[in-house]
Amino acid sequence: MIEITPPVRVRFAPSPTGFLHIGGVRTALFNWLFARHYGGQFILRVEDTDEKRYVPGAAEDMMYSLRWVGIDWDEGPDIGGPYGPYVQTERHALGIYQQYIDQLLSSGKAYKSFVTEQELEQMRADAAARGIKSFRYRGAERDWTPEQVAAAEASGRPYTVRLKTPLEGTTSFSDLIRGGDKITVNNSELQDIVLVKSSGMPLYHLAHLIDDHEMRVTHVLRAEEWVPSAPYHLLLYQAFGWTPPVFAHVPAILRQDGKGKLSKRKDDVATNRFWERGYLPAAMFNYLALQGWSYDDHTEIMSRDEVVERFTIDRVQPSPARWNPDKLKDMNGIYIRKLSTAEVAERIMPFLSRATLIGDPPSGSERAYVERLIPLVHERLEELGDAPELLEFFFRDVAPAGGAGALEYDLALLIPKKMDAAGTAAALAAAHAVLSTLEPWTEGQLEETLRALAEELELKPGQLFGAIRVAVTGRTIAPPLFETLAALGKDRSLARIAAARDALSV
RNA sequence: GCCCCCAUCGUCUAGUGGCCCAGGACAACACCCUUUCAAGGUGUAGAUCGCGGGUUCGAAUCCCGCUGGGGGUACCA
Length: 506
Description:
Elements: E1 9-12, H1 22-37, E2 41-44, H2 58-68, H3 88-93, H4 98-106, E3 110-113, H5 117-129, H6 146-154, E4 160-163, E5 170-173, E6 183-186, E7 194-196, H7 204-214, E8 219-223, H8 230-240, E9 246-250, E10 253-254, H9 271-276, H10 281-289, H11 304-310, E11 321-322, H12 325-338, H13 341-354, H14 364-377, H15 387-395, E12 398-400, E13 407-409, H16 421-436, H17 443-456, H18 461-473, H19 481-488, H20 490-505
This protein binds one RNA strand through strand 6, strand 7, helix 7, strand 11 and helix 12.
């Protein structure tokens, strides 16, 4: 059992380079869960030190995604907090990082490096040409005298600030998730990483660490791809004389085919794609919580509060999970089925509006009609976005191919197994006749009448009902027939049956 | 190449030395229910716990090696 001692302050610090994919949401979620379970604070910070990859609006988009799954923050760019600002470029503009850079430089823990990117590139190429396996840059400037540095600076040459990493010895750190032994690397494997670009902008390694320190972050839960750079961070904490936070590297979420981690380009995993398709936040929350964490050997469906109560870091496992959209979809279906009719109607309306099946906003009668239709499709929905397709025939005309309907269907679909066109036409004619005098037009009456008719015609119920289903919906797979007829109304039902009968009779 | 991390059914996982010839869920398949499709119910199949060595009376569980997968190796994060 891992003891977590308060205070607990964690953060999620995305880089605004595009949309947030579900892997990022999962990392954020574990941080949030950790903070909520152990009674700490969850901080959101924007790490936008990479000017080249910066995408305007991405930070806002990410915040929207986070809130959508139900992750809120105690301190952040939009709400502020005691250690703001929470955007790195703003902090840089305020000069927050400079004093720390000076401190590193004057204590000899870092040095100014005057090699250019081009020179570096050349050195790498040369090294590769000579068959050198790994190129680790440690500049000659690390041993320069103050005079040499001053001279280079006086000539106006741009420089970066690099960490002066030890040549010998080892650096190690422990990890809450990768328990057991510490992770240790030989310092000889390290290189003098760049801390500050020639533009004066600090890089992630430096900026995040200063921010974490100033923001009193106690536990760093981040994706496992950061494990290799953790030694640099340890060295930096040592250089500053600060106590490092506790680390916990959460497992990655791999692509569905297992070939590599999720990629924004290759995989359809942008968080917004999920609300666009009609996923419920609760389902996404529940699914993501189970990617790398579990409660026991059988509990899967859990509310937000239950997960918060049960989430402990020792049940987070170190091995990577694989993106499994089928499982998410199944869970989404479970959560949709838990919703009331009114709730489903409310959530489905925007999809129907977008498909121009109803107005935007819907009229009062449209709203009422949609609510009337929900029970027919409620348990058949796995994605709310499927609703327009499932309900389309209630809003558009349906007719056999060649007819006048907006939704046309193949005549052959009309003919049930072991029947022919003439027989089907006769059955539909009989159905039309008996239904045209039916009062009241209710589900119960419809069922009673049509069952009696099937018996009278010596047809199996499925044969008769199948033909009527296609006539009325234009498809073989549809909601239950009697409910459909009742919801569609007498006039429209009869007109469609007549059209089918006539088409088959020609 | 080098460094680091990881390793239980196709997938997500339970399992921390005997309760496991390995449990649950998704997916698959079959049957039941049934007017189609779902939902629901029942069941089947699917993992010699990656491989090989140890330690132990006893190992999926501990140790070592190998293999495989992933990640890192930027003036990206």
